Amino acid sequence: MDSVGVKLLLIRSSPFAMSCALALRQKGVKFEEVPENLSARSDLLLRSNPVYKQVPVLIHNGKAVSQSLVILEYIEEAWPPSDTTPSLLPGSAYDRSLSRFWADFINKKFIETGLKLMKRFGEEHATARKEIVEQFITLEEGMRAIGSVGPYFLGQKMSLADLALVPLVPWFTSFEALGDLKFPGPEQCGRMHEWLNAMREDPDVVASVPTADWLLNYTLNFREYIKKHYPGGL
Ligand SMILES: N[C@@H](CCC(=O)N[C@@H](CS)C(=O)NCC(=O)O)C(=O)O
C-alpha cells in the first residue's frame, strides 16, 4: 500500500476530518495526523489550502487535497478497490449516486446545522435546534426509503454516506447538550440507532473519532468562549 508521507491536517474535534481519517483507515493507508491550531494557522496549512484555510487537508505525494467530500473521492481513486482494499462506493451507478447524495446532505446540511447549536445564539440557535431533529428524521427516512438491510446507510458495506455521517457518533451527545434536545429513540428511528450501534463497535470508527465525553467538554467550553468573545455568534 502506497502510504509513504501521507498526512492529514486536522483538529481533533473536526467532523469533516473524522470522515477522512476513517476513509484512510478503511483503505489500510498509514498516515500521520498533523494537528492544526486554527487561531495561529501553520504555514503548511496556509500553503496547502490557500482558498479556504480550513482543515481537513490531505497531503499525498507532496500534493494537497482539501474539502472533505473531495478528499473522500480522492482516497477512493488513489487507493482503488482490490481483493484486499475495500471500495468506498457501492456497486451500481444508482447506489453510488445515492451514497454521494446523502454524503452531500450530511456535509452541507446536517453537520452545518449541528455546528450552529455551538456557534449561534437567539433565533438562529432556536431554528437550528428544530432543524437538527427534523434532519435526523430525514436521515432515518432516507435509509428506510433505500430499503436496505443495514447496518450501513446503503446496506452491508460502508460507503461515502457512512463516512460523512460517522462524526455523529460522538457529536450526537454534544448536539443534544448544546441544543438542550433529545433525538428520537429507536422506537421512532430504528435504522439510525442500528447504524449508530454498529458504528460504535467498529474499531476503525473508534480510532477515528474522539470520545463523546471529550467532545462534550470541548464543545461546551468552546460555546462559553464564543459567548464571551463573539456574543453575536461565530
Ligand atoms: N466544507 C469543508 C468544511 C471544513 C471546515 O469547516 N473546517 C473547519 C473545522 S471543523 C475549519 O477549518 N474552520 C476554520 C475556519 O473556517 O476558519 C469540508 O467539508 O472540509
From TrEMBL:
<dbReference type="InterPro" id="IPR045073">
    <property type="entry name" value="Omega/Tau-like"/>
</dbReference>
<dbReference type="InterPro" id="IPR045074">
    <property type="entry name" value="GST_C_Tau"/>
</dbReference>
<dbReference type="InterPro" id="IPR040079">
    <property type="entry name" value="Glutathione_S-Trfase"/>
</dbReference>
<dbReference type="InterPro" id="IPR036282">
    <property type="entry name" value="Glutathione-S-Trfase_C_sf"/>
</dbReference>
<dbReference type="GO" id="GO:0005737">
    <property type="term" value="C:cytoplasm"/>
</dbReference>
<dbReference type="GO" id="GO:0004364">
    <property type="term" value="F:glutathione transferase activity"/>
</dbReference>
<keyword id="KW-0808">Transferase</keyword>
<feature type="domain" description="GST N-terminal">
    <location>
        <begin position="4"/>
        <end position="83"/>
    </location>
</feature>
<dbReference type="GO" id="GO:0006749">
    <property type="term" value="P:glutathione metabolic process"/>
</dbReference>
<dbReference type="InterPro" id="IPR004045">
    <property type="entry name" value="Glutathione_S-Trfase_N"/>
</dbReference>
<protein>
    <recommendedName>
        <fullName>glutathione transferase</fullName>
        <ecNumber>2.5.1.18</ecNumber>
    </recommendedName>
</protein>
<dbReference type="Pfam" id="PF02798">
    <property type="entry name" value="GST_N"/>
</dbReference>
<dbReference type="InterPro" id="IPR036249">
    <property type="entry name" value="Thioredoxin-like_sf"/>
</dbReference>
<dbReference type="InterPro" id="IPR010987">
    <property type="entry name" value="Glutathione-S-Trfase_C-like"/>
</dbReference>
<feature type="domain" description="GST C-terminal">
    <location>
        <begin position="92"/>
        <end position="230"/>
    </location>
</feature>
